[in-house]
């Protein structure tokens, strides 16, 4: 199968609960690829609740080719206070190695873009690891640009959150 043939047959759709095992498998594949397996501390069941429970925290889109899920994207809404506009955060976009270059990634990113526009978002943001030149090249070919020159993304772990709360009067 050539790349154009695979792209022509690839489709994207919202993930269903029945896709959870495969999405979980791909999520772990992404963690392996990124060398971040130690950060996968949740469970497949927790992911299922986050995506398909009563109050979903995020949305998942899958790419299929020849009846098999070959990629996924997870997004959730966020907000820009400076722009006073909605945004989407692209948490994950992953395509299995065998399907890279087939158009599946482009289809997933287009599905994310479509959702962003339908929801009135002015942009979609995400992180990509500095060493992942293949992903950076792909995203740049799709029109992505760096979002914040001179900025460093920081985060607080649960331990840090608890410490701040414990050490700071309400």
Automatic annotation (TrEMBL):
Membrane-spanning parts: none
InterPro entries: Acyl_CoA_acyltransferase (IPR016181), Diverse_Substrate_AcTransf (IPR051016), GNAT_dom (IPR000182)
Domain annotation N-acetyltransferase: ranges: 10-170
Superkingdom of the organism of origin: Bacteria
CDD domains: NAT_SF
Keywords: Acyltransferase, Transferase
Record-level Gene Ontology MF annotations: N-acetyltransferase activity
Family named by the database record: Belongs to the acetyltransferase family.
This protein's name: GNAT family N-acetyltransferase
